[in-house]
Design a protein that fits this description.
Elements (H helix, E strand, L loop, with lengths): L1 H42 L6 E3 H10 L3 H7 L2 E2 L2 H11 L4 E3 H9 L3 E2 L3
Parallel strand pairs: 2-4
Antiparallel strand pairs: 1-3
Helix pairs in contact: 1-5, 2-4, 4-5
Amino acid sequence: VCLITSILSSQLIQAQLDTKDKKVHDTEDLRAVLATQVREHVQEGHESPLIDAPLLKDLLAEDETLLTRLEELDIKTTKAGLNNLVDGLLMDGFISIDHFVEKIVNLSGAAKA
């Protein structure tokens, strides 16, 4: 009986670990997909690796699904929070698109950006 209990406990623990590993892997995949989508949306129409803040804010405002996609990654923010993030990354009137994308997909929890 002890041996059976031990085997079942071991299998349950392993199943929990496998589920946790899968969830982490799935979240990383979702972050990578979101990063690609945001980068493509922001870079559409221009070649520069930099973008000015008003244009970036306009692009973010017109993306109706961005906040929902962030919530799927357990990132809760608002349009104002995203604008604050843009303002915080501003250097000489411009923002690095790659830096912005990195920051946005790595926010966590109730992000105030």
